[in-house]
Every structure is written in C-alpha cells, then in structure tokens.
Amino acid sequence: RIVGQIEGAEQGTVFAVLDDQDLEDVDGTRWVAGEVLSGDRFEIVGLPEGAYHLVFVADGFLRTFFPGTADPDRAAAITVLDGETTEADAFEPMRGSTLTGQMVSQEDDQPVSDAIVEVSSLDRRETLTAVTEDDGRFSLSGVGAGRYLVKVRREGFITQFFPGVTRPEAATALEVDGVRDEGNLSVLLPRRARADFNEDGEVDVADLERFADRLMAGGTSSSVVFDPNGDGLVTYDDFDYTVDLSRASGRVIDPPTILSWKSADAEQGAIRAALRADKLVPSSGYVAKVHYDTEEASFVGAASGESLYKDGRTRVEEIGPGVLLVLSGVLDGDTRSGSGELVSLVFRPKDGKTGVRLRTEALTVLLPENRMAAPAQPDPIRLLLPPETFYLLQNVPNPFNPETTIAYELPEAVQVQLAIFNLVGQRVRGLVDEFKTAGRYEVRWDGKDDFGRDVGSGVYFYSLEAGTFSTTKRMLLIR
C-alpha cells in the first residue's frame, strides 16, 4: 500500500497509476483510487508490486501529479514492494486559475441560466465544465496554464465560442497562466431560429440538408433541435411541428404563390413531373414532401432543368415507400423569385402501367430573416407516359352543338398549331399556336370564329401541325 499527506486539501481523490499507463487518461478508467482519510492523510491499498505515479483530483484544483506538478512529464514514480507500506513525501496540489463570467441573451440582455460552459485545453486532453446560475454567472476553478477553447451551449440558443462566434475555427483561444484569475468571460447567446438545424444563425438550404441527414440516419433522438415534438423519433412530422411553432410566433406567411405539377420532356419509357411555381416570393429555398403510387411506377431521380435554384443545391430522398423528401435552395443570403420550375422528378411506370399519381403533402418556402411561407399545395395529378407517335383524335361529341373537344398526342416537344377551317379552306378559328412538350392535350371549340361570332351549321375541318407532322379531320356542327 501507499500512504502519504496532501497539504492544503481535505477533500478529493488520490489515484495510483502504474508507471506504464497514460497519465493524461481523461477518464482514468485503469487508475486505482485511494481516499483522503481524516485530516489530509491518504491511503491506497491493494496494490501489487510495481512502480506507481500518484495523481490528486479534486474540484477547484488542477490535476496534480506527485511530487507536486501539473505536468505529467515531470511526475515522479514511487516503488511499491509486496507486503510493505510505502510512505510518500507530502505534496501540495495546485489550485490553478479561476474563470468567471456571465451568459446573456443577445435578444433581450437577460441572463441565461443552465448554460453549459465547456473549457477545452488546446494543449492536452482535458475539458472542464461549469453550469450558469440563475443570474447567468458561472465559476470554474482549477484551470491550469495553457490555451483553451471556451464553448457555451444552451437549449434554445445557438452554440457560441468565446468571444462570441458560431464556428470554433473563428474562436479566440483563452490564454491562462494557471495563477491569475480570469473574470471577463461574458458571451451574448443568440436565440436559435426554429429551423436553424445547423445552428449557424441562418435558415437556408444547409439547414434542410442537415435535417435530411438526421432524418435519413433514423433511430431515436432526445434532441429538441431535431425532435421538437418529443416523440423520440426524427420524422418529417418534426419539421411540420417546427413550422407550426413558427406560425404560432408569427414567423410564417401565406404567400400568393401558385404551385402546379406539369408534364415535361423525358426519355422514352419515363415520365418527368415538373413542379412549377408562379408568383414565388423572394426566397432562399424550399422543402416538400411528395407522395407517388408505388404500384404504378418507380422513382428514378431528380432531373436537371431550368430550376429557379439551378445554381444552388437540390436533393431528393425517398424517406418511405412512395414518399419523397425534396429540398432545394441557394446560400449566402441569395434569393429567387418570380415564376419557373422548382424541381423535376423522373418516374418509370411498371409493366402494364402508363402513368403515375402524385400528391404533395407539404411544401414550405424559406424567406429572408429566418421566416417561412406556406403556399397552397398543388392539386393531385396523374401524369401519363408520352405518346409514341403523333396522333389527332376524333372530336367528341360529333356531331355537336355548340361545343366539342379535340384531343391530340405529341411524342416530343414541338411547336403546335391547331385551327378550324370551313369547306372552302378558309380559316375560321385558331385554337393553339404555341410550343408544347410531349404528352396528351385537349382543347375545346365553342363554335365561334376568331371574332367571337357564332358559325353556321355544316361540315368543318380541324388541322394539326406539329413540327413536320400534319393531319386533318372533319366534324359536323348542327345548330
């Protein structure tokens, strides 16, 4: 056994560490613990023969090695023989510096209690922690000489590094001499926006990616950042809950944006569904939850196109059978607005199927100043495979009075002209003159000419010109 005396400390633990073990082991899992007896005497029993280092550990003191140093390289070993008691020379633990400061909310200058202050050595494997009191103040004793990274974290606030930055690489190292106290460690803590998942102070597509990463990782979570509804799981419901909380605090608007799904050009045998936005308010990105019928088609991937966010980031993840998480956006405070495509999703119909049904369950747009917008969801839609050939269908009904519907099919994107002519070949009414993507289209004729006048009963011809394709059919108007 080893006995000895600790000078100036009546509480704490003395450890015996075999000479061949790591003296900087933070946990000390292989250390043999002794105890400080009455007064300042200590005893460590049950030690096999060998050479040992002594380490004293106590709140308010540095981790001190025999014969009285905080430097493990200067520690001295004590030899223990079987069956004998070894008396160690008395040594005095080192108190080090005391760090004090106050954590305050940046929003209202109110003290922040229960914040965790972590002081991590940049020179050795050591981290000391303290918790702020009701007045936001903390005190941490027993800090040795060296350079330290000071980190402050608190639920509901963005983690900060001294002197008040969000990234550790931008932090200022705290120089401590181990003798003088440091009493000016005050940090302003900014509150975390609801959807600021990466805690950088800005809600943008990087936060959506961070949420997607955690969502795809699965498993349980006790983090209020990713599991705000507190059910122990990270699902899209947590993002919806975040939006609901933001709406309750007046951070969500209902914009005039109009969303719709459209058929777009795709390779043969595939369906490309383009989500389009009209009157999009200035925004940095969006996230959507889209359902498709897995019995009809398989999801292939997102297609590149003329997206409003084409120079930003786009990501699509299948988070469940027939459920897609779609996110896209730009960084660095940039925004997009106006009308255009948000994303294109490509599907491949299964054998015997010709289309796919789409339904948008949720879509949230990210606005400047960490606000959000919740536009009305686009109508559900069923998109079909593009036709394999050009085709002009017979009008329905035929004969008709006074209206009829004309359908046509395009296997590729072309300029289309569809017009009505009389028996002598004079043009009566133009119905279509625009560029169309591949698909099936319908147009209604109300029995009027280009000037809005009713035409008389009789035989009329309707002619389709699509690229190099041209055809004509006849119909009968009976008034």
Beta-strand share of residues:
35-45%
User: How many domain modules?
Assistant: 5
Give the structural class. Answer: mainly beta
- Cα end-to-end separation: 117 Å
Described by strand count, sense and barrel closure, the largest sheet is: 7 strands, mixed
User: Unreliable stretches, pLDDT < 50, 5 or more residues?
Assistant: none
Instruction: Supply the CATH class of the largest domain.
Output: Mainly Beta
Shape from CA axes?
elongated
Helicity level = under 10%
Question: What this model shows, in words?
Answer:
This protein has 479 residues and is mainly β. The chain folds into five domains: 2-87; 97-189, Immunoglobulins (Immunoglobulin-like, Sandwich), CATH 2.60.40; 205-251, no CATH class; 258-384, Immunoglobulin-like (Sandwich), CATH 2.60.40; 391-477, Immunoglobulin-like, CATH 2.60.40. Helices cover 5% and strands 45% of the residues. The protein is built from two helices and 35 strands. Strands 18, 21, 23, 24, 26, 27 and 28 form a seven-stranded mixed β-sheet that branches. Strands 2, 3, 6, 7 and 8 form a five-stranded antiparallel β-sheet that branches.
Short précis:
Helices cover 5% and strands 45% of the residues. The protein is mainly beta.
Topology, please?
Layout: E1 2-5, E2 13-18, E3 32-33, E4 35-36, E5 41-44, E6 50-57, E7 64-65, E8 78-80, E9 86-87, E10 97-105, E11 116-121, E12 127-131, E13 137-143, E14 146-153, E15 160-161, E16 174-176, E17 187-189, H1 205-217, H2 236-248, E18 252-253, E19 258-264, E20 271-283, E21 285-292, E22 297-303, E23 313-320, E24 323-329, E25 336-349, E26 355-367, E27 371-373, E28 381-384, E29 391-392, E30 404-410, E31 414-421, E32 427-436, E33 439-445, E34 458-466, E35 469-477
Parallel strand pairs: 1-9, 10-17, 18-27
Antiparallel strand pairs: 1-5, 2-3, 2-6, 4-5, 6-7, 6-8, 10-13, 11-12, 11-14, 14-15, 14-16, 19-20, 20-25, 21-24, 21-26, 22-25, 23-24, 26-27, 26-28, 29-30, 30-33, 31-32, 31-34, 34-35
